[in-house]
Amino acid sequence: MENTKTLFISRSLLVALMILSLGGWMLQGCTNNTTNVNENGPGHGNGRIKVHMTDKPSHGNIQALTVDITKIEIHETASDSGGNRWQTISDSAQKVNILDLSDGKTTLLGSKDLQSGTYNQIRLILGSDNTVTADGNTMPIKIPSGQQTGIKINVNTKIQLQQGKTYNLLLDFNVAQSIHETGNGRYMMKPVIHAVDTQIDGYIKGIVQPDSTNAVIYAMNNQDTTSTFADTTNGKFKLMGIAPGTYSLKISPRNTSFSDTTLTTVSVNSNDTTDVGTITLPQK
User: Fold this and answer.
1) Which contiguous run of DSSP H or E holds residue 119?
2) Are residues 166 and 221 in the same domain?
């Protein structure tokens, strides 16, 4: 009887050990199949999108433009595996004074790991607290459709997001072309924003003197013309989103006491800045 009992206990112990061993193996297998996003880079099968913003130098009587951003979305194009949908990059509300971002300064609006694929549009959904400061007075500014359908920005060179890669997209906000006075001291904004591919496009920077020229700078070639304003306080300028190639750089003063000038064969390379130095405009 004792032998039978001992045999029964031994067999029960063996079965219990086998169950524990099998459970541990299953738990280990489940753990290994779970993908965590690495803090230092995109998770498996994903790429990372970072959306930044900058501002072309403004001019005139505008001292501040504060935009109330409530959500940032990106559009994935249709593909065999799906797509044709908007995905959220950030839903954290943030207020950005666009004029704080001139002279090459940028701010990170949002970052998100997304499935590898092709993306062609950014959308900014705005809140109701958008203001402009002009001649020292701060007032609400109307932005048509900003709260409903949002501000849609086309990405001219579609984003090909690849697994394990980080893609930086720069939104270049042109305040001078965006704000319009409607009368009675009121303003409306129709945003002019250019999406810059920092991996492909290049930059041209320099200084126009004297500051009082209030110059407009044009980068021109056979395919495209891009422009910006020189800062009225220090003459600095930076042209962004310039496709690689050779350009003529025309500096045209709005102060009619000065003559314009043109630099030829200004070369631009991918993800690089061409510094043309200080350009002094002659007086007439």
Assistant:
1) strand 117-126
2) no
